[in-house]
Amino acid sequence: MSSIPQPKEGLIFDLDGTLVDTLPDIATAINLTRGQYGMDPLPADQITGQVGNGTAYLVRQTVPVAEHLFEEAHGHYGAFYEQHMLDQSRLHDGVEFVLDHFRNRALGVVTNKPIRQTETLLTGLCVRERFGTVLGGDSLARMKPDPLPLTHFICKHGLRPEQVVMIGDGINDVRAGKAAGVMTVAVTYGVASRKEMIAEQPDFIIDRMDGLLDIIA
Fold first, then answer.
1. Using omega within 30 degrees of 0 as the cis cutoff, is the peptide bond preceding 145 cis?
2. Across 14-37, average pLDDT
3. Which active-site residues does the annotation give?
4. Cα separations (Å) of 146 from 8, 76, 112, 121, 150?
5. Who contacts 97 (Cβ-Cβ below 8 Å, separation ≥6)?
6. 15: which of 38, 73, 111, 146 fits an S-S bond (Cβ 3.0–4.6 Å)?
7. Considering the entire predicted model, what is its pTM?
8. Residue 51: per-residue pLDDT
9. CA angle 144, 150, 152 (to 5 degrees)
10. Is the Cβ–Cβ distance between 168 and 178 less than 8 Å?
């Protein structure tokens, strides 16, 4: 890893756990969904580890209903989350400062969250206009860890992979970034543990979002 800040023209951010602390509201929606089926609430830490692979995976792992009830449960979760997604969610420390600092670069959000929820969340937190590209898990044919959303961003902004960095708190973020050939920065305050992120061998690891200023020129 170089200790010299590197010039990058494009910055791609994950959403849940990276830009925004969404976990309390996700936990609320999951536990309300569980309640529809007579299940007791789960502690938030049991839900956290299932975030980042799309909502279908999240619901399957946390609301274990019979297969014929899955679509119904998935629908309940979506409805509850849309009702509660802005109850407690907030930008992580340093995010607004970083977005302002890099405001003249190509900025994007690539998340496995459905695009409708993504747009609503970013708009509700007053940061949607900061991003030239926003892609959800259902925006393209494949989602992270597939590199397709990242290569879409790269092509849209006329950049080369070496000009771009992927910033995220999950294993899928690092894997997608590596597959796309971009620099990867893992944050430690989100879903995955520091140990899990180190195992993925990202190019850099930071404990706060504003740590990006030491990495990117």
1. yes
2. 96
3. 14
4. 22, 28, 11, 23, 9
5. 209, 210
6. 111
7. 0.91
8. 87
9. 120
10. no
